[in-house]
Amino acid sequence: MSENKIRLGVNIDHVATVRNARGGFHPDPVRAALLAEKAGADGITAHLREDRRHIKDSDIERLMQSISIPLNFEMAATEEMLNIATRLKPASACIVPEKREELTTEGGLDVIGGYDHLKPFIAKLTQAGVSVSLFIDPDLKQIQASKDLGADKIELHTGSYVDASGENQLAELERLRAGARLSGEIDLEVHAGHGLDYDTVAAVAEIPEFTEFNIGHFLIGEAIFTGLEASIAHMRTLMNKGRENC
Ligand code: PXP
To answer: Of 193, 229, 228, whose CA–CA distance to 211 is shortest?
Structure first.
């Protein structure tokens, strides 16, 4: 069981969303990251968006200086972000699609359509010593293309599973299961994330190939009621319970 424990990456973007609502310094996402680390998070995730709507450049720099656990830097496949990632060298970079008008990352990256752009892009990150993850939908062709592109790992988008209900949710869970299985077969490390909460996390944790979940919005929201350490601890308990069933 312990060998097959799922890592929990805590996404702190929405601490910055609240801070930015007033334009000052409080609440500080770096303080939240340090608290998450103390509460047992295995990594911190932060998305520097092109429009800097939540995390800012200085947050990433301060995170790199402050935390002792790995930083997973979410970024669009742009030259600007490539320059930042190769300069700061976070432990890993997760390449996500980014459209300025969307509320959050709404679907996975199309790595088949973007193959020619992504191939040298990933190579540059890898050369800089940054481990590359691709955030994709649980689509078998996209998973195989991610492997062909030389990514170290993928993160399967759990949004469709989380948003569905009943039979549809079971079907979405099966897509995640099939995607994770293929990743295991082709030796591609596989993570999951987006929209996971207390009700939806355990069933995904039962899929044995998943090694890491990245969870943000729910944990930060729940922290308003119970505190961040308690929300992380409870999420961890539910992940472990799911894993015990696999
Ligand atoms: N993983 C990736 C690649 C994401 O883009 C996001 C959202 O920023 C998450 C995980 C976390 O999603 P949520 O905040 O819904 O838990």
So the answer is: 193
